[in-house]
Write a structure and sequence with these properties.
The protein is α+β, with helices and mostly antiparallel strands and 267 residues long. The chain has a single domain, classed as Glutamine Phosphoribosylpyrophosphate, subunit 1, domain 1 (4-Layer Sandwich). Helices cover 19% and strands 27% of the residues. The chain has a seven-stranded antiparallel β-sheet. The chain has a six-stranded antiparallel β-sheet with strand order 5-6-7-8-12-13, covered by helices on one side. Strand 9 and strand 10 form a beta hairpin. Helix 5 packs across helix 6. The longest helix is centred in the middle third of the chain and has 15 residues. It is globular, with a radius of gyration of 17 Å. It holds the Pfam family GATase_4. Catalyzes the hydrolysis of the gamma-glutamyl amide bond of hercynyl-gamma-L-glutamyl-L-cysteine sulfoxide to produce hercynylcysteine sulfoxide, a step in the biosynthesis pathway of ergothioneine. This is Gamma-glutamyl-hercynylcysteine sulfoxide hydrolase. Pathway: Amino-acid biosynthesis; ergothioneine biosynthesis. It catalyses: gamma-L-glutamyl-hercynylcysteine S-oxide + H2O = S-(hercyn-2-yl)-L-cysteine S-oxide + L-glutamate.
Length: 267
C-alpha cells in the first residue's frame, strides 16, 4: 500500500528524482515493479521539499492520482531542492479526508510517510491512545492508520528522542498491538533520512555524484541500489548509510546489544 521515496544531497529539480527516472515514483503510481500489496497507487500523492536557507519544508498534496494533476510536471521541472520526501498512496480503507490523508505528513522541520497497513485499524491501536496527549489525538490530520502512527512518532520526537529511536520504538509498539502490521516508515528533516523496513520493500542508493536516495523500490536499474533487510532501521545522510537490525516486539532494542551496523562505502 503506497510507494515512497526520500532524498538528501546536492540540489536537484524535483523531477530528476520523481519523474525523469524510468521507474520513478511518478510511474510507480500505476506500474510499481516490486509492490507486494496492491497494484495501483491512485488514492492521493504528495511531495515535501526543503528550499535553500529554509529549514521548514513546503508541501504539495492532492487527493487524486498524480498522473491526473497537470500542474505536477511543471512544479517538478522548476523547483529545486537539497532534500525531499514524496509518496503515492493506495488507501488501506476509503475515507473522506482527501489530501489530508496523503503523505507526507509534516511538523516543524520533519516530513513523514508510512508505507504499509495496520490490521484491525482502528480498534487494534485503541490501547495506544492514552499514550498521546488529548490535544494530539484531537488534532490528527486524518482519520487513518498512517496519521495515528505519525502522531506516535511525533510525540516521541517532541519528547526529545532522536529520529532512529522514535521510529524504532513506535514500530515495536504498534507491531505488538497489531501483529502483522506492515510499518515501513520514512522520516526526513532536511539533512538526514531515517527509515524502517518492516513488512515491505525498502532500498537505498548512495549516488556517485553525491547524495542518498531511500525508496520503496529502485527508480532505475543502477546496480548500486541495495535492498534493506526486513526488520531493519536505516539512518542516512548525504554521505553515509547506517543499518541496524530491529528486534521483534517483546525484545527491547538497546544500543549495547545491537549488532554492528554496516556502512555503505562511498565510491
Amino acid at each position: 500500500m503506497c510507494r515512497h521515496v526520500a532524498y538528501v544531497g546536492p540540489g536537484e529539480p524535483l523531477g530528476e528524482l520523481l519523474v525523469r527516472p524510468p521507474h520513478g515514483l511518478y510511474r510507480q503510481s500505476w506500474a510499481p515493479r516490486r509492490q507486494r500489496y496492491g497494484t495501483v497507487n491512485a488514492d492521493g500523492f504528495g511531495v515535501g521539499w526543503y528550499a535553500e536557507g529554509d529549514p521548514v519544508p513546503a508541501r504539495y498534496r492532492r487527493a487524486g492520482p498524480v498522473w491526473a494533476d497537470p500542474s505536477f510536471a511543471d512544479l517538478t521541472r522548476v523547483v529545486r531542492t537539497r532534500a525531499l520526501l514524496a509518496a503515492v498512496r493506495d488507501a488501506t480503507l476509503p475515507g473522506a479526508d482527501a489530501e489530508a490523508a496523503a503523505a507526507p505528513f509534516a511538523a516543524g522541520t520533519w516530513l513523514f510517510s508510512h508505507n504499509g497497513a495496520v490490521p484491525g485499524w482502528p480498534g487494534s491501536l485503541a490501547p495506544l491512545v492514552p499514550s498521546l496527549a488529548a490535544g494530539d489525538v484531537l488534532s490528527l490530520e486524518a482519520r487513518n492508520d498512517s496519521a495515528f502512527v505519525w502522531a506516535l512518532v511525533l510525540a516521541r520526537l517532541r519528547a526529545g528522542d532522536e529520529e532512529g529511536r522514535a521510529l524504532a520504538d513506535t514500530v515495536l509498539e504498534v507491531a505488538a498491538a497489531a501483529p502483522g502490521a506492515r510499518l515501513n516508515l520514512l522520516l526526513a528533516d532536511g539533512d538526514t533520512v531515517t527509515a524502517t523496513a518492516w513488512g515491505d520493500t525498502l532500498w537505498y542508493l548512495s549516488r556517485t555524484g553525491g547524495g542518498t536516495v531511500v525508496a520503496s523500490e529502485p527508480y532505475d536499474d543502477d546496480p548500486h541500489w541495495r535492498e534493506v533487510p526486513d526488520r531493519t532501521l536505516l539512518a542516512a545522510s548525504r554521505t553515509d548509510v547506517l543499518l541496524t537490525p530491529l528486534k521483534e516486539p517483546g525484545d527491547p532494542l538497546t544500543p549495547a546489544d545491537a549488532p554492528a551496523s554496516p556502512r555503505e562505502p562511498r565510491t
